[in-house]
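Researcher: Next entry in the queue.
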Amino acid sequence: MFPAKVKMHDVLRRLYWTWHLGCHYLKQVHYPFRSRDAVRHDQSRRIQRMVAHAYRFVPYYRETFDRLGLRPSDFRTVDDLARLPVLERREIQSAPERFLSSARSAGPHECFHTGGSTGAPISIYHGLDAILQTAVHGQRYHDVFAAHFPARRRSRETWIFPSADSNTMRYRRLQLDNTFLAERLVSSRQFLSMLDPPEKNIPLINAYKPDVIHSYGSYLEVLFARLQATGEAFHRPKAVGFGGDGLSDSARRLILDHFGIPAFSLYSSVEAPSMAFECGEHRGLHINEDIYPLRVVDASGRSLPAGEYGEVVVSNLVNRTMILLNYRLGDLAALLPDPCACGRSLPLMSFPAGRKDDWLELPSGEPVHPSLVYPLLRDEEAVLQYRVVQESPLDFHVVLVAKTSCNRLETEARLAAKFGRVFGGKIRLRVSFVSFIPRTPSGKVRPVMSMRHDP
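Model: Structure for this entry, 455 residues:
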């Protein structure tokens, strides 16, 4: 049992954040409609504060600024962030402690792992204040669904994600555990596993009757393709939301034309949650530029003009625990030049280009989402990047880029045991160690490839 002092501190913290979220929820609904000048003013203020914090408390930025002859006062607007070197994923992999703030002891923080959809696992630390602010900023996206919900009623939502330990679910749990906002006061939610096949989840969705379904784009694609093929009874939600991976144009048309359900995308990552969201015009994604300003760059890191596709570089102006400024995400996209007809002043970007993950197949023939294998590789500290290729229901080829310190024989044996537990003891696992994994024509490393992948 915690002492009374700790209990009181916990109560006061939860009271503060409950008050904070309550004060800002409605403001965030209206924020995307503010003038562009007002948004840019907020952005500049955040940049100046974050850069000053980074220089004072974070080794990487202090050393980088001194080496380049820069000072925090040199950074006033979003354009100034381009004066920093583009931060690469491998730099965080090799020395994550260099990006941690020495001031993080002032408040609690959580470690989140990423690497599933990129094949290059890293650990990202988020302060509790950033986690809770993300709940507030998420209202900009959730407001898009409001027009589809019955008036004056809490929405009913079905969330289909890899597991209860997924980053999305952990974020939600931390937000609820550190406030007095009960789940039922915000919305009513059903949680299902994306690792279960659609035929198992469809009856559960029908019984719950949600207003909206949130999941990965690839799962929604398989779900609605099955529903069209079988014609089975299905409770149709008012809308669907997706992130994690993309939804093909053909799947969008199927969901809208055949089922009458609009789909809305959220562009998010562990490094920078809630970067951009789709509105009812469906022209692209509105960038939350006051909190996650984006650049689109060429191979040399030079900013590209609107309309040209390049790599997305983002700065996180919310999380003060692990500072990521001018960070290359690796996604391909373009900034769009024209304002949106919806009236939101937040600028537009294209939907990220690239291919959705391939689904794998269990020995029984049952399809399963590729996130099933992410945890098998994510905890391998010596692995820098990976690709898993399923060559037949029983044959897997795992390609690894590993640190020089990696014990290859032990790694092969450990992976064989992990894959055997998940896919059955009869599988055959082949492991190859390489110096690099080739990118696809879209510019991304495909970490999981099924038996049906393109040659």
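Model: DSSP finds 13 helices and 20 strands in the chain.
Researcher: Noted, moving on.
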